[in-house]
Input
Amino acid sequence: MAKNKLFARVNAWLDDETGGLERVMEAAQEQAAAPDIEELTPAEKRWAQEELEEERRIEAAMNDWTEKKGKPFVKALYNVLCVAVCVTMIALLLYTVTTLPHFGDPNHPINNEVSARYIEKGLQETGAVNIVTGMILDYRAFDTLGESSVLFTAAMVVLFLLRKDKNSARHSQLAQAMDLNPHSDTYYEPKNDIILQKTATILVPVVLLLGVYVVLNGHLSPGGGFSGGAIMGAGLILYVTAFGFAQMRKFFTYKLYQRIVLAALLTYAISKCYSFYTGANHIHSIIPLGTPGAILSSGLILVLNICVGFIVTCTMYCFYAVFRKGEL
Output
């Protein structure tokens, strides 16, 4: 309390000193700009009047030039520069396209030993029938961990910036209105739309089941954690749109969101740390690759797909909930 009073007194003193200094400077300027007319001779008065009229004439001419020629000139110059920049970028891109290797050219830079290794030994080394999944979650799994971490970080930043804080006076007008009138939430949640609810009752289980299938089948056919997680996230968004956040919070809360994402990231990191360590030191891994084509195969890829699917699902729902209502 004493510290706050001290700061208040210092600020008040600074304001007084600053205001006094400004008043002194303004008075000095007025005194310098407006000399005593009585002390001037008739010739000096006439000269001062002519100088004042000349300054006013120059100022009027400059304002007139700015309005009639200056602004149109600046606008035209801006348009010319925009066109020049666009034409230059188009020319550079077209030149780049014309210098690219032809499709199917054996000397193309992508036709190197790396891609050949993926195609020739991908199934043997990863156990994944889907070569793309084997490449993303085995050969380049560290990169995929970074992508999952970026998703998690983006969700956290959105929560920090947009999450509604009832103890703060700076949260959005929508949050303030909903605090003052809780029944207004029905305007943003069509809870009584019988057509939407019946449709969601049929579609949500199908969408979630399809997402689970895409995640679990990612090492066998096109799919995986990213695409399957996006499908499951769309299912959660459809459910909350039809039935509202109150129904969603009965089984999906903010704490559950944190635990799922944290567990998925830790499982992913620990799994790949073991895989990297054994691979870099040429140690035989105790995790079998299984039979290619079976659901329980490809070693850790199935586990990693599940982790990525959970992260993507939670991140999609988090973005939707926070942007729409300010909370999960």
About this structure: The chain has two domains: 2-29+44-98, 132-325.
